[in-house]
């Protein structure tokens, strides 16, 4: 599928990476427990999703309710049998052009921001991250992408032989809680 370059806009996306457990810390050290002879860090029961670094891309993003949508110039969504009125925007791209999933976030008009995860990283004596609690001398925080700073979250990805339709919902304060 060909699209006019003038219709494309600069965007950024980030995919959900790993989920980081948050550890119980006492006196600056991670609390551990022995399970089958192996020291294991004690999680406080909470974890945080960690998104990958944002990646820049250009694509055709169309707000649902826009002039183009109102004139009926967007016929592709109807081919999928999807009611797009429940979404805030859509992106049309060549099939499989970007690795977006239904947990990806998109920045359109804003820039990515970062947040700090407290007690998320075990650090060894050299100051390097370690996964072995017996080597950990302390626990520290880490800066990660703040998914709430995104403009949209991907809610649905539909791909045909030539086109990928990505349906988006606007991110609000409670979108990820």
Structure explained in plain terms:
The chain contains two helices and 14 strands; from the N terminus they run E-E-E-E-E-E-E-E-H-H-E-E-E-E-E-E. The two termini are 37 Å apart. It is mostly beta strands and 177 residues long.
**What is the N-to-C succession of helices and strands?**
EEEEEEEEHHEEEEEE
The total of beta strands comes to 14
Q: State the separation between the terminal residues, measured CA to CA.
A: 37 Å
Radius of gyration: 21 Å
What is the approximate shape? elongated
Biggest β-sheet: count, sense, barrel? 6 strands, antiparallel, barrel
| Count of runs of 4 or more consecutive helical residues | 2
As a percent range, the share of helical residues equals under 10%
- How are the strands of the largest sheet arranged? 1-8-9-14-13-10
Strand content: over 45%
- Residue stretches low in confidence (pLDDT < 50, at least 5 long) are 173-177
Quaternary structure state of the chains depicted = single chain
The structural domain count equals: 1
User: Which structural class matches the secondary elements?
Assistant: mainly beta
**Whole-number mean pLDDT:** 78
């Amino acid at each position: 599928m060909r699209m006019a370059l003038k219709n494309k806009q600069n965007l950024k996306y980030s995919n959900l990476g790993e989920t980081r457990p948050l550890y119980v810390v006492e006196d600056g050290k991670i609390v551990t427990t022995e399970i089958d002879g192996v020291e294991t860090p004690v999680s406080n029961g909470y974890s945080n999703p960690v998104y990958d670094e944002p990646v820049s891309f250009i694509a055709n993003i169309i707000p649902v309710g826009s002039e183009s949508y109102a004139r009926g110039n967007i016929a592709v969504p109807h081919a999928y049998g999807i009611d797009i009125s429940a979404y805030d925007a859509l992106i049309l791209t060549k099939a499989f052009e970007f690795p977006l999933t239904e947990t990806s976030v998109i920045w359109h008009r804003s820039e990515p921001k970062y947040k700090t995860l407290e007690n998320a990283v075990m650090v060894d004596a050299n100051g390097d991250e370690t996964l072995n609690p017996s080597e950990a001398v302390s626990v520290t925080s880490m800066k990660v992408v703040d998914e709430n700073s995104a403009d949209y979250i991907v809610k649905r990805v539909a791909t045909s032989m030539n086109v990928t339709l990505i349906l988006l919902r606007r991110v609000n304060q409670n979108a990820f809680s």
